[in-house]
Design goal:
P_C10, globular
């Protein structure tokens, strides 16, 4: 079943904030802490232990907003978030905070090299 839901920027902010809140609840926080300690600095283990908790939490939240459960819902939601974050700094920041649970920070060099 294909769902064609349209979200506005404010709804996207609410959903992302709810995901963040859910990730920091006592039970999820403990599960994430345990998963992160199991994973250590091994990115493959982070994707094995931490990422599924984050995705599961996202699925629990987004299904309340009419998105389908499972892979299809996550893909649709993520595409919507990416589209909104281009024009909405709040959405971009909330999405960055969620990704920080499973992705290490990326330092982007501000130095610009010119090719002559």
């Amino acid at each position: 079943m294909t769902t064609s839901l349209q979200f506005d920027s404010n709804t996207m902010r609410v959903i992302l904030a709810e995901i963040l809140e859910s990730l920091t609840t006592c039970e999820n926080a403990l599960n994430l802490e345990d998963a992160k300690s199991k994973a250590g600095n091994d990115m493959l283990k982070v994707m094995q232990y931490v990422y599924p908790i984050v995705v599961s939490t996202q699925m629990d939240v987004i299904k309340k907003y009419g998105l389908p459960e499972g892979r299809e819902g996550i893909i649709k939601f993520t595409r919507s978030v990416v589209a909104f974050e281009k024009d909405d700094r709040v959405v971009a920041d909330l999405h960055r905070q969620i990704r920080s649970f499973y992705l290490p920070p990326v330092n982007v060099s501000s130095a610009v090299t010119s090719h002559v």
